[in-house]
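Summary for the steering committee. The consortium agreed at its last meeting that each partner would contribute one worked example illustrating the joint modelling workflow. Our contribution is presented below. We chose a case with several input lines so that the handling of multiple components could be demonstrated. No manual editing was applied between input and output; the record is shown as generated.
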Amino acid sequence: MKATLKVWRYDPEVPLEPYYQTYTVDVPEYATVLDALLKARDEQDDGLSLRCSCRSAICGSCGMTINNHAQLACKLRLVDAMEGGQEVVCEPMRNMPRIKDLVVDLRPFWSYVARIEPWLVPVPPPEGREYIVPNERMQELVQVVGCIMCGCCVADCTVTSVDKSWLGPAALAKAYRFVGDPRDAHKEQRLQHYSMKGGIWDCTHCFECVQQCPKGVAPMDQIMILRRLANEAGITNNAGSRHGRAFQSSVYRSGHLNEATLPVMSLLPHIDQVLGLLPIGLRMLREGKMPPPVRKPIPGIESVRRVFRQLEDDK
Amino acid sequence: MRYAFWPGCVALGACPELYVSTQKVAEVLGIQLEELTKASCTGSGVIQERNPELGDALNARTLAMAEQLGLPVMTICSVCTGVMNQANTRFSRHPDYLERINQFLEPEHLGYGGTVDIKHLLWILLEDYGLDRVRSFVRRPLKGIRIAPFYGCYILRPSAVLGYQAHPRRSNYLEEVIHAVGAEPVDYFGKSKCCGFPIVTMNLKNSLTMAGNHVLEAKTKGADCMVTPCPLCHLNLDAYQPEAAKIQGKRLDLPVLHLPELLCLAFGLLPQELRLNRHVVSTDPLLSRL
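What follows is the complete predicted structure of the assembly.
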């Protein structure tokens, strides 16, 4: 099978602008994108740089942008990447400094992980025996321990693309791995730490990390669990938690979300931030986009409230 | 063709122009809509992050009402589409869980059997109605207009719960609609990315940087306007565009249309009928070219 690869080339030691180079390779039907890249390097261009090791989607080395999405080159079959004969575009992962060709600098990625205290801080075991963890508690963590730290989620994260200070999906998925571990003594401190600016409440719910993760870790889902656990632990003095509470009470009251009151309720008691919304609010009012502050409840509201009361103890 | 219609909170609140244009599209195409007036907000992923079962119960309730009517659900919001489909997938994968959720609907004598399809208007146009039929209603082809599609995350990802195996072209439907109304789609990186709206109250700067990046990219690629199937994206791309422009340090002034508005303009309806004056970014420069 003949395939065409269009590969992003860049060498800091050569005074050339980055460019795309096209390689045509002849590979078996079962070849992966990595197989094709290695063949191009072996037979046509030994200067082509890329990282790889296990070739089995275990080591997490060969993450790169393939056809616009961060993926493991060893996990993606070439025929699937070609989608009926198109050229396969290979670029380095986004959101990370580029070193050469398809190789990126992963130090920023590791610095995010380092910031979440990525080790277990053990609670003392019961006297006279080791700490036994119930099997079902560890089952909850199976998904997150599957992370191979390939960086694909961070590479396609929409928040990281605009804010390099945000902890990002891989580090926060790892964070849940410890918060959810019954042997960890720092659960509360961790949730406090992860609730700060640049933490769990900065995730924008875009599902890119869920979509791209080659190991099914679904980092965003883990971030949502951390949000819930932070709420349950009473760590609620932040705009994210207040936003959720205001959202929920708006639906309880009227059956609908009220866009007029939600931003105000989320930002109180920070009067300065609420006042910052004033120009936007006035403009919305002028353009007829401001819903009334008290929305008329939907006809079925009593039934909606009953569902709430059954499932929310505090209502 | 009949659908149980769930407009979503934003079409009933901050974007009334979306509600109006949807009704007009249905009228022109002869699609009957039975509005689910007793339905509640889907939870938008926000209630789900606080209390997953509560979010699912609210959606099971809405789906049970559609099931009683024997109709599939039509949505006009990417977030509603995504959240309801995610819930529906959990119900179909875990019948025991659905049974548990149904207990909470019993007092209202409702129960969801798991049989309802949830489709965005965009999917309905291509899969149920047919673009050729849509095209036959075009009275004012938008010739020479360059339009940047903007999908919204929830209608694209995670693809495994949104029917992309059966309908892999769903991520290209907006472009197909743009072609069908005689306009030209603009291809750009940001079209499938996040508008930033979900964090607008938590991190205004990040949120509006995202929105501004997409608007600027679309404009740089020569777009005359954007079109979106999601009113929440519309809020960030249109209603917050002046603030997003300040962050970019550039004038943006790119009109953003709701999907049904685009159709209505091509069907020859008058802008006054569509309440296009409800947009923050003026659509006048665009309308003057039609």
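Chain A has three domains: 2-104, 107-232, 239-311. Chain A has a mean pLDDT of 94.
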